[in-house]
Amino acid sequence: MTIIFYDIPSSAPGSSWSPNTRKARYVLNYKGIPYKTEWVEFSDIESHCKKLGILPTSTKRAGGGPHYTLPAIHDPSTGAYISESTKIAEYLEKTYPDTPTVFPHNTIGLQWPFNDAYTSLLTPFWMFILPATFEKLHPVSQAYYRTTREAFFGKKIEELMPTGDAATKEWANCKEGLGKVSVWFEKTDSSGPYLLGDRVSWGDFVVASYLVWMRIIWGEDSKEWKDISSWDGGRWKRLVESLKEYETVV
Amino acid sequence: MTIIFYDIPSSAPGSSWSPNTRKARYVLNYKGIPYKTEWVEFSDIESHCKKLGILPTSTKRAGGGPHYTLPAIHDPSTGAYISESTKIAEYLEKTYPDTPTVFPHNTIGLQWPFNDAYTSLLTPFWMFILPATFEKLHPVSQAYYRTTREAFFGKKIEELMPTGDAATKEWANCKEGLGKVSVWFEKTDSSGPYLLGDRVSWGDFVVASYLVWMRIIWGEDSKEWKDISSWDGGRWKRLVESLKEYETVV
């Protein structure tokens, strides 16, 4: 039976843009598990999850109530509803053990904390990519995105983007952050583009999900994506291209 | 030839207590590489490193100059001087490829960022363990420890330790932090005590180094160590005991 995959739409090519949903989408495609996408606007995620009994993934910063996020999946063959990308990956590993693993060599315990280590280095990107993302959302999701992101940053989305010298400096910080991630890849004694060398795994999907977000939102011909593609010896462009076949949106 | 291993002494049993030096010590013992310890007081680390040409490992928080830390090693067979525990592990892997690896299955790229993900969850411990550590240092190192730690926390070492209800609450935060680390271990589908299941690796040495620090400073019979030993189904005591043979101080 076909898994239902809940993702957030946009006006960008392919519609799917969220790095968090992409992690799960990468895994579904990599494993070759049949699924189809159902699109849920930001503003509908909470009611959608409550209706289906999908668990919240964290606690809201403001007010402290349950926070519902995507990705989520429904697997009709087991009846399961699962939210949060690492939990989805873990569920698919256990439920479909004959598909290719994203946690080879029992590395799940090392891969689990990887996401936080990586995204903490991406912080300088948010002020650039969030306003651009906002522009690509459908109006009903824009309203939700504005409210939540402006509450988090304490300023209007239109004021997030740095300008002039500040932009140059902050963009250099973005490059420095990815440079530190590049060091992790360099440590692997291998010619492969992946964290484990020639063997793709969860950590690569995590890294690539944020890069694909940027490529999709800014576009391949943008100054930003061309910059990123030139950093670290072209590592990021190569990584994303090597995983292109798993970007498919169905 | 015998590697010289530079460690920080104390009045605790075995003298060695620092979690950062223990990471490298674990690796030397695990690999079975001959070494001997030379003890360097905190206050002498900078002059010691400068004299030998050992590189600083970071930048000082105050003033921004080079910050010299231990562990460091000198390998007379190559002439190399290496500082910082992950760099020492990497050096030993490359220089002694016939010894057991601490980065099995090409996991170095995943293991590299593990330390930060782990120690960020240990933050609540600092206010308890730092004052107790101070008590075990030799007087000349105490002076250095006081200056640097008090500058960092903005309060006197004697004021760090919480009391009453605050102590109960902060100790519960310590338990919660290790509980999150326990989840990473639980993910591994194996009966082994290690992050990769039955195969020890760098991440386990990182986790255990901080636990051994606590056991050494507080003592096996302390209320604190008995508490930690009881958490997460006894996971932490089991982990540390399974690595006991690699604690040797020579």
Top keywords for this entry?
homodimer; 250 residues; alpha+beta; Glutaredoxin; Glutathione S-transferase Yfyf (Class Pi), Chain A, domain 2; 4-stranded mixed sheet; two-stranded antiparallel ribbon; 6 strands; 53% helix
Spatial strand arrangement across the major sheet of chain A: 2-1-5-6
Tell me how many strands of chain A there are.
6
CATH topology of the largest domain in chain A: Glutathione S-transferase Yfyf (Class Pi), Chain A, domain 2
Helix/strand class of chain A: alpha+beta
Radius of gyration of chain A: 18 Å
Instruction: Choose one word for the global shape of chain A.
Output: globular
Q: Helical residue percent of chain A? A: 40-55%
* CATH level-two architecture of the largest domain in chain A: Up-down Bundle
- Which CATH class of the largest domain in chain A is shown? Mainly Alpha
Largest sheet of chain A: 4 strands, mixed
**Quaternary organisation of the protein chains:** homodimer
Number of domains of chain A: 2
Give me the number of helical elements of chain A. Answer: 12
What number is the mean pLDDT of chain A?
95
Extract low-pLDDT stretches of chain A: none
Order of helices and strands of chain A: EHEHEEEEHHHHHHHHHH
Query: What is the CA-CA span between the terminal residues of chain A?
Result: 15 Å
β-strand amount of chain A: 5-15%
Which protein chains make the most extensive interface, counting residues with beta carbons within 8 Å of the other chain's beta carbons? A-B, 30 and 30 residues
Protein name (chains A, B): GST N-terminal domain-containing protein
Pfam family, one (chains A, B): GST_N_2
Domain GST N-terminal (chains A, B): 8-100
Organism (chains A, B): Pholiota conissans
